[in-house]
Design a protein that fits this description.
The protein is α/β, with parallel strands linked by helices and 478 residues long. The protein contains 17 helices and 16 strands.
Amino acid sequence: MLTILLNPSNPEPLYQQICTAIREDIAQGVLRPDEKLPSRRALSAHLQTSIVTVQTAYEQLAAEGYLYSRPRAGYFVDPDAPLLAHMPKETAFPSSQPAKTDPDDRIVFSTSGVDLEQFPFATWAKLSRQVLSSKQEKLLQSPPAMGLYELRAAIAAHLRAFRDIHAAPEQILVGAGTEYLLGILVQLLGASRRYAVEEPGYSKGKRILRSNGASVIDVPMDQNGLQLAALQQSGASVAHVTPSHQFPTGIIMPVRRRAELLAWASAQADRYLIEDDYDSELRFLGKPLPSLYSMDNSGHVIYMNTFARTLAPSLRIGYVVLPPPLAKQFEQDFSFYSSSVPCFEQYTLVHFLQEGYFERHLNRMKKTYRQRQKRLTELLRSHPLGAYLHICGEAAGLHLLLEVQLPCTEQELVQAAAAAHVVVYGLSDYYETPQAVPPTPQIVLGYACLSPEELEQGTMRLLDSWLPFLRKHCIKPA
């Protein structure tokens, strides 16, 4: 008779306890292939449980392939049951959530986020309800590869009004963020090309290009942006640039350099510029310079932008404007794709753009960020270290570049800040060639995610942590 210890206080049902015990006996060889098991009545009497419980256990094991039954003969061990018993068990993985070790008063000058408290939740919820009530059937359909036509038309109207970009909806491709769209562009343009990127620059963009099989070459910057001579010598046929507000230096590319880049692109039929206009709407001083796309007369610029910086990163909605030949090529070669952005979010954004909510939200955000940036620069300049700090990139965007003219290294500045529970990032983090890093320490300060209180506390704590370097600088040798 089988030896099975049932535990009534165990939350596992009794029939499952019987199943587990029989599986273990098969795995250990206690029960052999084709061996007959006790009858339901005999085993239930032995275990002092109901016949139904034993019957349920036998049927479950038979369904799993451990047992088989013969009419009027009972249940037997399946000849292949030992194979099932020795199958690999579920692997236990450690929790993916790391233990919280960060101090509660930690302040991060992140460059990747936005002020989520400013998101227009009430308006977005209202528009979402309208979409749910009026677009029920359409929400369940698969969106076309380039995105809903209504959204592409709304984006085209927005670009005409705010960036003087005149593009047809048929040229606009909507996708789940610029990272996804970069991968699509590599497929469209070809991975066999050489892609030039800014140095220093957006490190994730470089990784995305490489992960799609592209050959990537770093091209150095000067005070006007991407160096044209270095680009010409690179052998690249595609260049990824951020002319409106270079990341992370904050350089705004002047019109002359833009014209030179356009001349480079138009010199050969297979050359393209990918213009990443990621935060062009967030300009605080003067009128924005014309985009490369609006200056291009030869069809060699691909314009890219995202709503992640102006609305919320989690929406994952970005878009590119393709020159007409590339738009036709996408329709021909990639129309089997479905859009990577759900219809629900696309329809909601259509209303948000068409009804003027985006423009009003953008004006509020510009005012908020401008006030925040102004306060940050005031704190930097009024501190005893102010005379040793040079601020770059105030005209636009959500970060500043801080040049620190003290007798220390960039790493020492970052470490001193960390000791004060403040996280900042050095400019060297955005270089792939260490020998190209400027000798003067430079720190990248993102401020969009910080509340006014955090901005005040974080800036003062940061600068105070650097004061020992000033005292070291002021000590006169004997």
